[in-house]
Amino acid sequence: MEASFDTEESFDDPSCLAPQPPGSVSPAKRQIKEVKETKTTINCVTFPLPGEGPEQQLLKPNDWSYCDYFWADKKDPQGTAHVAGFEVLLQKQLKGKQMQKEMAEFIHERIKIEEEYAKNLSKLSLSPLAAQEEGTLGEAWTQLKKSLHDEAEVHLKFSNKLHSEVEKPLLSFRGDNFKKDLKKYDHHIADLRKQLASRFASVEK
């Protein structure tokens, strides 16, 4: 009977027939392994090897987006000057001042609603309705009005917390301390950017 072999390796290659030392990989399998090694994993994150991955695409190619130009510089529309990537990031953050103001106004409106609701509940709890009733009906109305008063207190406390823990910090976040910190770190970032530009120039030589 004629023996048949089901294998991917070709016997036309003499190296396939040569004895292989223990633990070695055949040429065919080595070739398959080399084809698959196009990625590397660092800290549980997989990256394509240099030359294997596609060219990185800008997330927002038509915008001055800090997500694309954090370290790199971008030319202005006239192409006569460059805008530092850190400056793009900084301008994005400074625009958050308006958003922060709008958030504080939103919270302030919520506080007014809570205060008005608490005021109306408290007023309703003072209603003289069924004040002369006795027995279970009188007790039921007394408990109902007490629950309204307690609920009014809860909403009033909630409005006070919104003011002290949300609205007030939002309004004071970008005060004098923010400007001082920004000025302090601005010089530090400028020095780091000079070092980065110098190293880029050294690499390109």
UniProtKB/TrEMBL annotation:
GO terms for biological process: clathrin coat assembly; clathrin-dependent endocytosis; neuron projection morphogenesis. It holds the Pfam family WW_FCH_linker. One of its GO terms (cellular component) is clathrin-coated pit. The keyword Cytoplasm does not apply. InterPro entries: AH/BAR_dom_sf, F_BAR_dom, FCH_dom. Residues 1-29 are annotated as: Disordered. This is Growth arrest-specific 7. It comes from Nothobranchius pienaari. The gene is GAS7.
